[in-house]
Amino acid sequence: DTGVSQDPRHKITKRGQNVTFRCDPISEHNRLYWYRQTLGQGPEFLTYFQNEAQLEKSRLLSDRFSAERPKGSFSTLEIQRTEQGDSAMYLCASSSWDRGGNQPQHFGDGTRLSIL
Amino acid sequence: DQQVKQNSPSLSVQEGRISILNCDYTNSMFDYFLWYKKYPAEGPTFLISISSIKDKNEDGRFTVFLNKSAKHLSLHIVPSQPGDSAVYFCAASVTWRAGGGADGLTFGKGTHLIIQP
Question: What residue in A sits closest to B110 (Cα-Cα)?
């Protein structure tokens, strides 16, 4: 049983650089979510997709953040012109959804971003 | 303003006893609640969930209780084991059954559970 996979696990970059993270969800899941977690806080919701459609993106932190899921399978989260405050753990989660009811989200181990 | 609150940053319990973790919420639209467990350097692991149409859900050693009038839920772990030592997050969401849209999960700040041998 393959879980949610995130790559890379760690990313160190200089302020002002662009970074991109990848998430591979559980294969049968049609929903994919991105969260950010900072020290001492719970994960904070950013955006989500159902198949290839991005159904919620108003919670992305600024216009420097963007996400894609072009074929409804893996997803990428890009941060342009990184700032010190972007240092955090970026988590991806996936779930299945149908009209039958709620299903829990399952998380990957995250990408830890450090901005120098 | 925090919509999901876990007011105990840490909790210490003796092995074999019951662990009770508490969570309060303010958004009356929340209708699905979950508990996650997190070890250092790993992502949150789903433990148990409950829909707002129920007041109790049980899965092995884990039971979640929901009190909608008090906007309060709790996670009971019986008996507590050393491997239960971790940070526990309470999370909630609003689900739209008709339109299919839904918001992401809103998390509390977590409670660090320490099981003493």
Answer: A42
Pairs of residues, one from chain A and one from chain B, whose beta carbons lie less than 8 Å apart = 66
Q: What pLDDT, on the 0 to 100 scale, is given for residue A25?
A: 96
pLDDT band, residue A2 (cuts 50/70/90): confident
Q: Best mutation site among A105, A106, A109, A112 for testing chain B: the one with the most B CBs within 10 Å?
A: A105
DSSP for B36-78, written as a single string: EEE-TTS--EEEEEEETT-SEEEETTEEEEEETTTTEEEEEES
Each residue's pLDDT tens digit, A39-80: 999 999 999 998 998 888 888 889 999 999 988 899 999 999
